[in-house]
Write a structure and sequence with these properties.
The protein has 390 residues and is mainly beta. Helix content is 10%, strand content 44%. The chain has 2 domains: 2-87 and 96-240, Beta Barrel (Cathepsin D, subunit A, domain 1), CATH 2.40.70; 258-388, Cathepsin D, subunit A, domain 1 (Beta Barrel), CATH 2.40.70. The model is unreliable at 1-94 (pLDDT under 50).
Amino acid sequence: MSVESNRSRFRCLRFSVSRSRPASQVNIVRLDRHRKSRVIENLDRRTKRALSWRQNRAILAPVSVANNFPLARKAASIFLAGLLVASPICGARPSAREDRHSKLPQFEALPLVRSKQNHLVVRAYINGRPAWLGVDSGAPVSAIALDRREHFRLTQITAKSNLPARIQINGGFNNVAVARDLRLGGLSLVDEPVVVVDLGSSTRAARLLDEQEIDGIIGADILFPTKAVLDCQRGLLILKTDPDAIGSVPGFDRRGFQAVPIQVSDGFNLYVNGSINGEPAKLMVDTGSFATLLHRSFVRRMRIATRKTAFSSTAVNLKERGVRVARIRKLSVGSVDIIGKEVGVIDLEGLIHDGLLRGSPPVAGLLGGEILNGHHGIIDFGTRTLYLKR
């Protein structure tokens, strides 16, 4: 949520991506502390389809972050501890490659900061310069603020590149640039494409709320290839630094959680099955959304009463829209039932396409930050599972 003057605004970006060349791979660069060399790993080409022939779309919400972070938390986001996977099975002689991998951190644990606006923000370095990036499960591609492009020395897309120079957002076009080195803790992403977007409304809101301005957003193009695990309540993002490493994230105790399978669209949006007052529906899992939002037409069809608020909704290249509030008798996500839940109600037309709003079951809205935090949501991008507590 962004706030301007006396009104509050939800801002969402809608991506519609098309291009004429195959997508490039993601390169992960790790520092081998034993050989003092850099090891480059190429990840699956499919994870970069966010910039592909297909038209991919998602909700991408700008994030604001408080500027009064405790010094210890700032330091913690720079000096990160690596987690090690379990040792090889007893009796088996590891190969030289396995032996080398076993000595390296294969997971990177990144502490997150929760902003006043209920967004999760991580410390990063872009071409050697510090940045604050929001972690957004609803964004298929990562983005950098337009007014920070020169500061981070992003590279322009050339005619010889396999990447599109521009992508379409809500009918308008935004440029694509390349970060030569995007570092998250000890993990560096090489030649990472990012969309350059105008986050002016978010910037103004941050100033009104006395918060640090956001520099950009981390999207699914990074979260999927690194098989990220995002703990929304603890504020922790764990990335897999070695794509060849075997095993899941160590120390992840699933006891007490309900597992909800995630369906991933061609546009790399995350959907889960649920219901609204017993009516089957799908919800997009969106950590970039401050709160859970339902589609206005769906709420009307269900004959659920709403009331006015002082909030409004705005999206890139879309007109401002009013936000109402409804009280849902029972909102279910998988087997987790949430009783007497108040949610926002807005018109999602233009934000969710391909007939999904009228599908069977329809996409009823966005599963936002307050539910993911309150019910200890954990998003496992590797296994495509959402974990929730009742």
